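Chapter summary example.
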Amino acid sequence: MSPHSLDADARRWRLISTLVLALFPVLVGFWSLSLGQDGNWDLRNYHWYNAYAFLNGRELTMDVAPGQVASFYNPTLDLPVYLLAQVLPARGVSFVLSFVQGLNILPLFGLAFALLAPLAAGARLRTLAALLLAVVGFCGAGQLGLLGATFYDNVISLFVLGAAWLVVARADTVWQGRPVAAYSVVGLAGLLVGSAVGLKQPTLPFAVGACFAFLFIAGGLWRRLFLSFFFGIGVIAGMALFSGHWMWHLWTYYQNPLFPYFNDVFRSPWGVPEAYRDDKFIPHGLVASLLFPFTWVMDPKKVGEIIFRDLRVPLAYVVLLATPIIMLALRGRKVAALVDRRAALYVIVGSAITYLVWLKLFAIYRYLIPLEMLAPIVMLAAVALWPLPVKARGGIMLALLVLVSVTGKPGTWARVPFADRFVEVKAPALPDPDHTIILQTGYAPTSFLITGFPKQIPFLRLHSYFIHPDHGDIKLNQVMRERIAQHQGDFYWLVAHWEVWTAKDILPRYGLAADMDHCQLVTSNLDEPMMLCRVVRQDTSAQPS
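The structure predicted for these 545 residues follows.
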């Protein structure tokens, strides 16, 4: 084939890939509308409230932990959807959110295409392979279940995958180029990953994996150290950009920049001296850790709250374990290169370190969604290095892609029928909202209902999985006790009907009693009706023990 024909072929396939990639997020947006509207627990507990509270300055001046422990999360990531919902109907909000999530196809394609650089002469094969890897990566069961949902794990993935794409696409510069250019590239990549961590802290394993992977890839010791160092500087800058303001706020007011997490270290008087970490999914022991990917295939509840099935990460785990064995057994064989070796090793090592850190910090599958999307590319990077004939490697990879595609079963988070507005709350009229305090107890996610009440009404959560009168004289309890003791107006109690038992267990600890004969319903489009009952003083001298 002549050079002119090669150029024409490359342009044709470049156009085809551009059209596919441009259309894909639009199709994702429309398809997600068939899933129904997001009504997940986290949305009801804090995603909606935190943005509302931040924009209205409620967190310090009015409310006390209405969203339980998540009341203290950085609200920055929640602001776009909340603001969008003020101007668009619910379907419009879901479409835009899903469209953004659909943009993950771009870094996935770009990463795969860059990794397959040795196939530059075969524009058709390279483009089709990259598109296949991107689509299969995008269509993981965990990712599909999150479309249109406000967990945002498949939004921050854009930063993580974008950083990997940047490093792989500029592999020559990173590992062989001038130091200034190389450190600039990895610094920018670190900024992207750090931004993801700043927006959502559980992204931290990806920052660790992407940073330390440089230490294991080709190059002199000092170059590897400096690549890792400048990537780390970028991570810190990204974190400061998106969470610096919030960490400073938490430090200034609560004496803990991560409040309430790691309060066993910071000892803020506002909470108990505990770590507050959710570690119930973390496997214990070497055998349990080694078998963990197979454990969650058998029982998805080992890594989350819903039933799903996806083999992308478990199969990538098997492929990576098999790779050194195969490489050692078949050493000495020379085969045609299918991928850039340095870039492939970076993807492999970075993913492996990320997984190990995730395993020890969270073991919650939702936090691994960027790796789920990356898993087919990780498998490609590993299989392409195996010293086997090209057709054998291609056949193995194709079989793996088919297997993960036909065995996947997306999970379903809470979905509700579409309403006109993304969040609709109807609260009963109160006689004196200027002199009213509403109390919350129980574990149900009720903070989203606050947006349906007059803005001047404060909400105090006396009891939740985060706070309890038994926590004694922590400052959160002190503040609520003092405000209740000094209040001269009305009290109401917002509670789920299945948690009315807290009327006897919690309210009397504050000298209060619920008047169950005077209850009304607070209705919404996201959950079943909640109860709003009058509260009277039982004994004004009573204090929580």
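To summarize the output: The longest strand covers residues 512-524.
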